[in-house]
Design goal:
The structure holds two protein chains of two kinds. Chain A has helices at about 15-20, 40-50, 70-80, 130-140, 165-170, 215-225, 235-245, 270-275, 280-290; strands spanning about 25-30, 30-35, 50-55, 60-65, 95-100, 105-110, 120-125, 150, 155-160, 185-190, 190-195, 205-210, 230, 295-300, 310-315, 320-330, 335-345, 350-355, 360-365. By secondary structure, chain A is an alpha+beta fold. In chain A, a hairpin with a 2-residue loop joins strand 10 (about 185-190) and strand 11. The longest helix of chain A has 12 residues, at about 215-225. Chain A is globular, with a radius of gyration of 21 Å. Chain B has helices spanning about 25-30, 80, 85-90, 115-120; strands at about 1-5, 10-15, 20-25, 35-40, 45, 50-60, 60-65, 70-75, 100. The radius of gyration of chain B is 13 Å and the shape is globular. Chain B is built from four helices and nine strands; from the N terminus they run E-E-E-H-E-E-E-E-E-H-H-E-H. Classes of the chains: A alpha+beta, B alpha+beta. The interface of A and B includes residues 40, 236, 239, 305 and 308 of A.
Chain lengths: ~375, ~120
């Protein structure tokens, strides 16, 4: 049991609501966060895949990069990431990573070009909670002077995820139903101004809603009043994203992994490959051309026992060829699921692996991700 | 005549003659959350008090279960292979883990009775 005091921990605008709902609170990225509510991790996971789950992700960093026009701002941020941001249409959202000069991942983030013409020259950023201060420092130190970074600590962030999420949200915010996957727009939830995007971290359809902190609880209570919405904690957030094959920063990706090793090559823009002007471009483009020495893959352990983060991966001769970076039990897959890095010759789907779980060898194989059927609404 | 004892690691031990049935307490299952897998030892294995005897996995994490007493594993609850959720539903009954043949009955004296265990867990919250 933790000995860390809770007094120094930060609280999101929904902290009081979490406690009222009977959440078990844990320290996470400096915040006192709900790891689970009364349903428990398993029940919350299954509920999200079946109906709709409400997540408080207000601990994540929200910021706006501001420049004179879209191209100026996009080109500025492109100096630190490998995505093509110039080509972003109004209202479009893109996943990318802040890169260090060696091509390692400082953080992964979502970048949205605002839908409204009056927001021309802005890019909306959402970064990881544990990385946000470092990200802001890195951006402030390295971005050209043509842009400025505005941190939006005045905003909360909610995610409503699951097959029922969009229809439910549309009861208060009809415009949510018009969004396609990876787009967003400013809109209203009843009379609450907010920014809604069709996106998430569960492998399900759903939305993320950026809302003024002082209105977040009102919005959360309204959504929770719907019979099909349950509050979901960080425990199920992790099992849902793992089944969806999505990376968790600090575990599956970090400053020692490149986007190519992390199987995120799709996020390196075609134009950016030709221009070769992002941090670590030489290494990253070399890995695209010749293959990375190791690759992040999905892993299905045989049997029912999970293989957790840190588990050594062996080849048939007992040689260590990699490590599990995320692993657990997938409630929807109803089986253990994992991801990890293996030497490139072992990265092909179906390759047999051996896992060293608590001193015992366990059979496993390289598996396609996601481990569940993705149901994003294209 | 049977007696139930508890350990500070949240195992329970039901003693019937020289056979002890062992599981994790209801308090422990509440702390763990949904149990998805229990790794049980082989029947016939000799374990010393404090040895890792089983592993209980929730969605979130793996937790070791240490042998509360020394002896030989004489039976394991194979029903947990198919329905690990029995640990949550009935931790101190159908969710038992192993039966052991005691090798040193004096070790039982170090364990807590139910009242002492309840006082112990009340102090943890």
């Amino acid at each position: 049991m933790g000995t860390q005091t809770t007094e120094d921990l930060l609280k999101t605008p929904l902290h009081g609501l979490h406690v009222e709902l009977g959440a078990k609170m844990v320290p996470f990225a400096g915040y006192d966060m709900p790891v689970q509510y009364k349903l428990g991790v398993l029940g919350e996971h299954l509920h999200t895949r079946e109906k709709a789950g409400l997540f408080d992700v207000s601990h994540m960093g929200q910021a706006v990069l501001v420049g004179s026009d879209h191209e100026t701002t996009a080109r500025a941020l492109e100096t630190l990431v490998a995505a093509d941001l110039v080509s972003l249409e109004r209202g479009a959202m893109r996943y990318t990573q802040l890169l260090n000069p060696e091509g390692g991942i400082i953080d992964d983030l979502m970048v949205t070009r605002p839908a409204d013409a009056e927001d021309e020259g802005k890019l909306l950023l959402v970064v990881n909670a544990a990385c946000k201060h470092g990200d802001y420092d890195y951006m402030n130190a390295n971005l050209p002077e043509s842009v400025s970074l505005e941190v939006r600590d005045d905003l909360a962030l909610l995610a409503l995820q699951g097959p029922g999420a969009v229809d439910i949200l549309a009861n208060w915010c009809p415009e949510a139903a018009d969004l396609v996957f990876m787009t967003g727009k400013p809109t209203f939830f009843d009379d609450i101004p907010c920014h809604v995007s069709r996106s998430g971290y569960t492998g399900e359809d759903g939305c993320e809603i950026s809302v003024p902190a002082r209105k977040a609880e009102e919005m959360a209570r309204a959504l929770l009043s719907h019979d099909d919405v349950e509050p979901i904690g960080l425990g199920a957030r992790d099992s849902l994203r793992l089944e969806a094959g999505l990376c968790l920063y600090g575990h599956d990706i970090d400053e020692t992994t490149t986007p190519i090793e992390a199987a995120l090559t799709w996020s390196v823009g075609k134009r950016r490959r030709e221009e070769a002007n992002f941090p670590g471009a030489k290494k990253i483009l070399g890995q695209i051309a010749d293959g990375a020495p190791r690759k992040r893959v999905g892993i299905r352990p045989e049997g029912k026992g999970p293989a957790r983060e840190g588990t050594e991966i062996h080849d048939a001769d007992g040689k260590v060829i990699g490590t599990v970076t995320s692993g657990g039990f997938g409630p929807t897959a109803n089986a253990p699921v994992a991801m990890g890095y293996v030497a490139k010759e072992f990265a092909k789907k179906g390759t047999p692996l051996t896992l060293m779980v608590r001193g015992k060898l366990r059979a496993a194989e390289v598996a396609a991700m996601p481990f569940i059927e993705k149901r994003y609404r294209k | 005549m049977s007696t139930v004892k508890f350990t500070e690691d949240h195992e329970w031990v039901l003693i019937e003659g020289d056979i002890a049935t062992i599981g994790i307490s209801n308090y422990a299952q509440e702390q763990l959350g949904d149990v998805v897998f229990v790794e049980l030892p082989e029947v016939g294995r000799e374990v010393a008090k404090g040895d890792e005897a089983a592993v209980v996995e929730s969605v979130k994490a793996a937790s070791e279960v240490y042998a509360p007493i020394s002896g030989e594993i004489v039976e394991t609850n194979d029903a947990l292979d198919e329905t690990p959720a029995k640990v949550n539903e009935d931790a101190e009954g159908a969710g038992w883990f192993v039966k052991m043949k005691l090798s040193d009955a004096s070790e039982l004296e170090e364990l807590m009775d139910e009242a002492a265990y309840n006082t112990f867990t009340a102090g943890l919250d």
